[in-house]
Structures are given as structure tokens and as C-alpha cells.
Amino acid sequence: MVVxxxxxxxxxxxxxxxxxxxxxxxxxxxxxxxxxxxxxxxxVHLSGDNSAVLPTDTQKNTVYAxxxxxxxxxxxxxxxxxxxxFVGTQPAVRHARVAIEEYTWxxxxxxGHSFVRAGRETRTCVAHVDGSGERVVSGLRGxxxxxxxxxxxxxxxxxxxxxxxxxxxxxxxxxxAASWRHAYFPTYWDKSHETxxxxxxxxxxxxxxxxxxxxxxxxxxRVLAECPEICEVRLSLPNKHHFEVDxxxxxxxxxxxxxxxxxxxxxxxxxxxLREDAPDAGPAWE
Amino acid sequence: MVVxxxxxxxxxxxxxxxxxxxxxxxxxxxxxxxxxxxxxxxxVHLSGDNSAVLPTDTQKNTVYAxxxxxxxxxxxxxxxxxxxxFVGTQPAVRHARVAIEEYTWxxxxxxGHSFVRAGRETRTCVAHVDGSGERVVSGLRGxxxxxxxxxxxxxxxxxxxxxxxxxxxxxxxxxxAASWRHAYFPTYWDKSHETxxxxxxxxxxxxxxxxxxxxxxxxxxRVLAECPEICEVRLSLPNKHHFEVDxxxxxxxxxxxxxxxxxxxxxxxxxxxLREDAPDAGPAWE
Amino acid sequence: MVVxxxxxxxxxxxxxxxxxxxxxxxxxxxxxxxxxxxxxxxxVHLSGDNSAVLPTDTQKNTVYAxxxxxxxxxxxxxxxxxxxxFVGTQPAVRHARVAIEEYTWxxxxxxGHSFVRAGRETRTCVAHVDGSGERVVSGLRGxxxxxxxxxxxxxxxxxxxxxxxxxxxxxxxxxxAASWRHAYFPTYWDKSHETxxxxxxxxxxxxxxxxxxxxxxxxxxRVLAECPEICEVRLSLPNKHHFEVDxxxxxxxxxxxxxxxxxxxxxxxxxxxLREDAPDAGPAWE
Amino acid sequence: MVVxxxxxxxxxxxxxxxxxxxxxxxxxxxxxxxxxxxxxxxxVHLSGDNSAVLPTDTQKNTVYAxxxxxxxxxxxxxxxxxxxxFVGTQPAVRHARVAIEEYTWxxxxxxGHSFVRAGRETRTCVAHVDGSGERVVSGLRGxxxxxxxxxxxxxxxxxxxxxxxxxxxxxxxxxxAASWRHAYFPTYWDKSHETxxxxxxxxxxxxxxxxxxxxxxxxxxRVLAECPEICEVRLSLPNKHHFEVDxxxxxxxxxxxxxxxxxxxxxxxxxxxLREDAPDAGPAWE
Lengths: 286, 286, 286, 286
What we know:
Radius of gyration of chain A: 23 Å
Oligomer: homotetramer
Order of helices and strands of chain A: EEHHHEEEEEEHHEEEE
Number of strands of chain A: 12
Number of helices of chain A: 5
């Protein structure tokens, strides 16, 4: 007997840009919104009866209409607004997930209407709304960082396939993908995001690293120390290897100066740091 | 009180190519292998003590050494071999996850040593080995398919933001990403993969579609019908919209002939089809 | 004194899909069209006077309208049709360049309306039309090929920075990007493309290679030998290095069996093979 | 009679990172270097005789050795150093082209050894050295800018395929790819680059735009006005369309507030601004 298991559908990557004009000083919000709904959707799978299916085209329209009606503030607020709307107005929709990426722009000069894309990283959030409540995970990705010293890698396990030598000084570089779950919603999402981001950067810079795992734990812990509203941090840290080039063939020393930045393979360290009393995550990470 | 939650680490994207020479008739296996270990790793996170950490560099070496010692047959077998090795030889490693992508090559001419990359799609697998047993998920991604008729979308739910009109004839196009879990391991992984792939293609072609969800369910069901060893299928199907271009401004009809292939946004339909008596998935999908 | 130099403008990447219905047997043409115009465009640059500027939006509309009015046959014919139209109807447009990429689909089963993207490679063409005549360059890219033997690299120049050792047997792999210019237009573009593609593949397979440059020349020569209508071939061949992995640390031989497929850096070999009496290229390669 | 036409070869994308340690204050240079040589290379193409071919592996080694021996200052200086070396030491090499991309890092905190990738854009240069002299083109790409007002598009040419309506207020957004040729080499490449970059941004912000072509010309002119050492500027400006969303179906106005950021197709405006007395470009742009 074959049955339908977990399923969901939605509109992915609706690109919405809002320009707000306060006299000559404009403001730009630039988002990529993905809405995903689930609920009483057995019939559409089994017989193609679409009566429970709000079209993904309608979901896209709703993003644009809500941007106009409600404006776009913090992406977490906009995600919650959309998720509540779908659950609250569509009888068949039991659960809404809204994921948003935000691209940031900085002012180009002082005329108030010219901007340059900051490009450092992407701010992210995922909001879940269903009968069990509301959950928000915030985060960022594409934050590339490097320490040129204060990183060792020694005392590791080894077997017959181990050829790596120990090092007391290496480059440690990674591209941070971080997500954090909230125990309660902060008054100001932007301020919370800024603090968490700062904590990640500060912990990366300050940690004398014996392993990337140790750095990961330090980064997650620092976010929790700085942000009482956050109860869990998940980090995915590729170890972007920088190999010291052997220049001895050319009669040259290379004492931690010239490196080859490799693409693949790469180490990948993933981990979670959380408060012991963190509330149940529910579907927050889905 | 802050604690360490779920964590894992490994070497991602080790690119290994094996050439087997049977006289003049060579054979090529071209893989991208990612190994991920977890277990008693608290100390490395908390204090940077690496004594439980088998370096990711060693994991990479193991992939190459095993390719030589054992050869590469079906990727599922190679993934299991590696996963068992790590769990079986490293005391601190409780769980190994090995994910492999395979790129296929076809013969270029008849000389036996010239090949052309097939490129249609990527074959995938993920093997998990831990104290609870062994699990394998196989799959594929990048399989792009299109039906130019026999697809409707009507009778959907609507609200104040709905502007989409019903259609009785549209292009249905998607890029199939499919994974399937095994209730038991087949004798021949390659044969099983071939049958599952054929079932996906046949169901896509044969289904008169009232919704992409219906097509998804038909595709998953067909795999289960054809492959007794498979107990669960997960599909992620982006709806690659092809919009009929309005040519009326130019005095031209457009009766399902000229389409604009859009990039973003796109619908995204995800779902699971499984046997009612499927065994517990455990960590298979992680 | 500052002046305007060479300039051009157009609409890039108009994605058009045409479905032709011959009873139950449908046919799909899937193109990416980029149109580029130039001519008397000084004023728009200097003063913003757009009176000579046919909007890029109009160019896009023309692509769709022409797909309907004239159908899409060989991409070279469609490119010429569009280029002639812009030069012939817009007084300020002196030169039109139309570049087309074609993605091929194969039948999925036998129902006549289901297709699977072939994905092996992209077929390309660029047509130029101006007062000096019409020129067409055809080509392909993304054709990935590999020889597992019959490739040496020895007897090369060396200096104090040379550490590479000679080899009498290596993997030779590349991703072919090829373009070819026509001395005259063939009766059947599709047939000409098929022959040129076959010549590239055959020459790659048949050449015992002492260097990738030699293989390049053999490939270009073969196209010219097989296709009298073609007068010049340009090839760009990245040397996709496959390095033999040193397994001696593990007590294992590796006699041309296990390779690491590297990403970067890569060799890049570019060259032209042409008939001595090839007509002047004019703007064909721009 | 078939002959060899223009050809060149080299090592593409050698990734070199140099760390300089001034006490606790480290400095990072992060480059992607591509070297390309040409000269007396007929034999290698015709017969596979490699005696004139300096291996691309040696070119890679040279990049790393030179980074150590000479350090990396401005990328233009490093490119010239490498190009002169190859032409000056290899008898068969008549021409060297060295292209470099630079990725910039900013300090992360104040410890002197932690960095965060700036990511705004990539700085570029191409140096050519041969018997006719030395030429340097500098530039940047990936600089994404947007004006939210002061952009019109009216008075354009139209034909039967024109449906675009005129606008007096639109978003103007582009991703700047700019290259500039030097009439003479500046004393400080970094200062010259900074000034040219500033000129591009300032001209984009300051220009009340009647067309993207006009903005392009203003940007190029401004660079020439600010940088006497620069004699020619080439710009490639995709028109990243932001379409006002029609919200009237939902009873909502949209007066330049809510936009859909489209991917494809896009306008593409390319042009050159140069001094009337610019010296001959020779191979500078190849």
C-alpha cells in the first residue's frame, strides 16, 4: 500500500524591490522571497483536484501586494506577516513557511537616490507559522573570513591513511553560513541581527584556534552570550584550505607567506550550539 | 547553560576518477565523494583537543586508497565500504555518512579509450552507517523534462490576490531531483537505479497532468511499483514556467506555439511517496 | 578632446521556446537569443537623444514575433533573418549581430509530446549583417571529452622554475569550445553542424597526442577537411588536469588508475586553423 | 591549404595568497593569475614537438616564486613583472599576456590578523609585453549600482513590434564591468585605480539619465577627466531591469514603489570613450 508522505509547495525566489521616498532621501529594500505552504493537500496529489491549492502565482502576487500595503521593514516581520496571512485565510493551509534573503545596498554619494550593492553577505530568515505557534530562524551566509595566524592543528587521530603533518601556524579561512533560532522575538530584529553578526565576527577574530570545531563553538557561544533572545545557533563552516607552497625547488624559503588557495576538496565543519533550556524547535529548522 | 548540539565534520567533494584497463577497452568511473563523521566530538569543540578527530585530509586519502584497493563499482557499494571503514576503525566515530555524485561518460567512437561526458544528469547516493544499521538513499538530479501538452491547471483555490487564469493546455517542465530509500539492498545497485530512473521518466511522460503535484505522486508511485527494494521516494520538482507570449499586438495568434521560458520566480513542488509499511527511516535522510 | 569609440547595444538572452505540433508528434526548439545593434548612435551617448534607438524591448518582441511568423529552423537561418530585419528596417542601424544558443531535447518515450533535455552541449551561432555583407560563425561549447591513454607530454622547454616531469601516458581531458566561420553558406546548416561536430570528436579520439596543441590543430584540420563550406576554426581547450594520486604512502601502486580531477589552475590552449585562401573575416569574430 | 592562425596558451586561474607580517599587523594580497604566452609555436601544433613550450605548470610555479621573490604590490606591477620575465627568458616566447583578478579583504576587528572579504567587486588588470612595448589595461567588474530616480527613457525609435511605453521616472540599475587603457603608466597604480573607480561611481550618481548609453558616456568621460594617465575606457553595462508591478488588480496604486527585479532578458549597453589622441592600442584589448 503506497501513501503520500510529507509534502509542500510554493513560489520560490520572488524578487521584490521596494523604494521608499522620504523627500530626496530614498531607501531601498531588496528581497528574494520564497513561500511554501502545506496542509490538506492529499487530493491534489491523488486525483489532481486543485480545490485546496492556492496557486503559486497568487503567492507571488501576495508578496508584491503586501510590500505595498504593509511596507517592508525587518525581513523577519515581513516573513511572519506573509506566513500568518496564508495560514489565516486559506482553510486548507495548515502550515506556512516563508524564507527571505536580503541584499544590502549602501549609499553611493550623498544625493539620496544612488546606491551601490554592498555584497558582503546575504541576510536570511525563515518563519514558520502553524497551529503550534510561530517560529523564526534568522541568519546570514556568504560571510568570508580569514585569520592569518593564531590557528594550529595538532594532536589529531591518525591511521594508516594519515599523511598530514601537524602545524602550529596556519591560515584559517571559512565562509560562514549561520542560522539562529529565537526563544522569543526581539523588539528590533535589525538590532538583534546586527549583534549576532558582530558576535560571530568577534569570536572568529578573538579565538586562538586549535581546530575549526573549537572556533565554531566559540562563535555559537558568543552569539548566545550577546543575544538573550537567541536560544540555538547552527553553523556550517567550510575549511577553505590555504596550502603553503613548497618553494624549496627554487631555492626559496616559504615561512607562512605564499599560499595556494584550493577549491576542492574542502573540509566541512557543521555544528549546533544551544541553551540547555531552549524550547522545543518544532518545525523551525525545516 | 550553553551546550553542544548535533555536529559533524568531514571532507567534501573529493574528486576521484578511476580508469580500468581491460586490454584496449577502458572503463571510467568519475565521482565526487563527500565523507562526514560524527561521534564523541565534544572535546574538540570545547577545548580544541583533536585526539578524536581523524583529519579530513585522511578521509580524502582513504577515498583514493580505497578506489585502488577495492575498485569502484556501484557508488552505493563504494559509499558503504567507506562508511563501514570509518565507523569500524575509529573508536570515536559513531556514525559515518558518505555521499557520492557520479558523472557518466559515454564512448567516443570505438577505440576503447575515448569518452564524451554524457551530462544529462548526476547520479547520487548517500550511505549512513552507525550502530543502528546501514541505510542507503539513491537518486539523481539534473534530469530536465518537458511535456508540451496533456497538462492542465484548473479549479484551484483563489482569493483577492489571484489573477491567474485557468488553462486546459500548458507546457509542463521541471528539473527532477529524486531520492529513494531502500527497504533492503538490491543485488545490483546499477540495475535498481536504471529501473527507478526509467519509472520516473515513464510516469512523467504517461501522466495526463492536472497539477504538478499529481505528476509528482505518479512518478513516486511508479518507482515503488517497479522497484520492490525501494520503500520511499522523495521528489523536488521546480515548475519551470513557460509562458505563452502575447503576440496580439503584432496581429499574430499564439495558440500554444511560442513561449517565454522564465527563470524566477518558479513554483516548487516537494513531496514524498512511501509504502505504508516502510521501515523506520532513522538518519537516512540527513 | 574626448570622443565616442566603438559601441553597440541590444537585448541579451531572450529565451524563446517554439512548439510545433505535427499531429501527435511535437517538435521543440529551445533558444537563447541575443541581439546587438550599432550604427548612428552618437547622439544618444552625447545628449541622451533616443531617436535612433530601437528599444531593446522591441528587439525582444521581434524575436518572439519572428518565431511565430517565420518559425525556427536552423539557428543560423533564424539569426540571419533577425539581423537582416534590423539592418533593413531601422535607418540608424548599420550593423546587427545576432547570437543564438540552442539547447537540444530528445524524445522521452514514444508519445510524441514528452522530452528530456539532452544536455551534452550547447550549439551556438553568431550572424553579422551590415553593408559589407553577411557573415556566420557556428559552433558549440560544453562538449567534455577525455582520452584515457595515447597522450604524452615530453621534450618541453624548461627553466629554473620547471618541476614537471615528462610523461608517456596521461589522461587528456578538455571541454571543447569551438567556433567555425563559413566561406559560403551551406544548403543545410544542421547537416553542416553535425559534420563539424563529428569531425571534432573523431579527431580528438583518433589523435595520438604529444601535446594538447597538436590535438587542437588536428581537430581544426579535420573540420576543414570534412566541411568545404568552413574556412576557419577557432578552438579554446582548457586542459582539465587529472593528476595521478601518489598512493605509495599506503603501500599501493598507482599505474595510471586513480586520478584526482583538479579544478584550478588549468592549462588553456587556444588556437585557430584556417584555409590559406580564407576570405577576409570582417567583423565575423566580434 | 590549411594553416595555423593566431594561437596562445598558458595557465589560467592560479590562486595565490600572500601574507605579509609587519609585526602584529598582517597584510593580505589575494590574486587569481592567468598567464598566456605566444610566439614560435608552429611546430607544437603541427608535429607535437614541445621544445618551444614552457609548460603551463612552470608558469604556475613562476607565479608563486615571483610572489615570494618580489612580493605583490599593485597587480599591474606584478603582471608586468611576470610578462617581462616570460618574454625575456624564453626565446620562443614573443608575447606574454598576464591577467590578474584581485579580491579585497578588510580588517575584522583590530588584532591585525583577522580579515573579512570585502566582496563588493573584483579589481582586474591585463598586461601585454612584446617587442612592440608594454601595455596595461586596468579595470573592475561586479560593481552593482542603482539609481532610484533621475532616469528617463523617452523619444525612442519605434516600429510595428514596439510596445514599450515612455517613462519619465524609472530605476536604473547595472553591474559595471569597466576596463581602461593607459597612455602612460602612473606612478601609483593603486591611486590611479581608486580615482578611476571613484569617477565611475560619481558619474553614475550625478548623471540625470535619459538613456543608459548617456550614462555610459558620462562614466567614461569622467574617468578620462580625472585620470590623465588613462586614454581609453571601455564599459559593459547590463540594464538590470526593475519593472513596476501592476497592483491595480488589488486596488493598490504603485507609484514607483514596488518593483520586480528581472533576470533575463536584459539590455546590454557596451561602449568606448577615448581621447582623440590616444596612442595605438596594439594588442592591449586582446
